[in-house]
Structures are given as structure tokens and as C-alpha cells.
Design brief:
The chain is an alpha+beta fold and 137 residues long. The chain is built from 3 helices and 10 strands, in the order βαβββββαβαβββ. It has 2 domains: 71 residues, 2,3-Dihydroxybiphenyl 1,2-Dioxygenase, domain 1 (Roll), CATH 3.10.180.10; 66 residues, 2,3-Dihydroxybiphenyl 1,2-Dioxygenase, domain 1, CATH 3.10.180.10. Strand 5 and strand 6 form a beta hairpin.
Length: 137
Amino acid sequence: MKLQGLVPLLQVFDMPESVAFYRDVLGFELVEHSPEIEAAEGHYFHWCWLRHGGGELMLNTLHDAGERPPARDPARTARLGDDICLYVGCADLDGAWAELQARGVASARAPVTTPYGMRQLYLADPDGYGICLQWRA
């Protein structure tokens, strides 16, 4: 069996907010998306595919049109950071840290060097999914 690539699919509460985070904060490119709809929650699409360098990611709305509650479930958001973390290679962690601070990403933590020889910077997306930018120390 020959496999090629691995693309996570994340369920998100607010698609426009999530796309803005991955595109405007982390620099992902929007590659493709489902047809746009107009719903009580606003104008958006249910699914999209994003790419940054060799990394790819898909986002899908957690709720169907007209069924989204007024706010995220804080218990679900807290759990996601514990259960799911996307590890992404980033050679310039100091530069990434400076960019995240300049963009006001409150969830970002300063880079640290681990006992296992990696330098890592953790942050979370709007839904609480963990993201670790890392490089060998």
C-alpha cells in the first residue's frame, strides 16, 4: 500500500473566523471550498481546503446552517486543546513568535527548548485546536 499525504479535517464553530485565523494569522492559502450559502449565521461555506508550503488542512462546519448555537461550547473548546495538536515545522520560531505577538494571538506561548531536543511554540486556533510550531534545537 502506498499512501500519499495526510490531511486533517477539523470541525469548526465559525467558518469565516477559522479561515481568517489560518489564512491571515498563519499564512495558509485557501485552495478550494464548497458553495457559499446565506444562513442565520451569515454568508459562508461549509467546507474548505487550505495549504501552506507542504502542509494541508481541511475545515468543516460543526453545525449545519441555521443550527449553530449562539456561542461555542467552552467544555468542547477546552477538550480539543488536550486531545488534538497539529505539529508544524517552522525553522524561525523567534520570527514566528514576533509575528504572532504583533497579530495579537493571545493563545501563543513563547518558544521553549524541550528535553528531547525540540524547540517549540504552542498556540490554539479559535476552536481550541492545539498548534505546535517546532524545529530541532
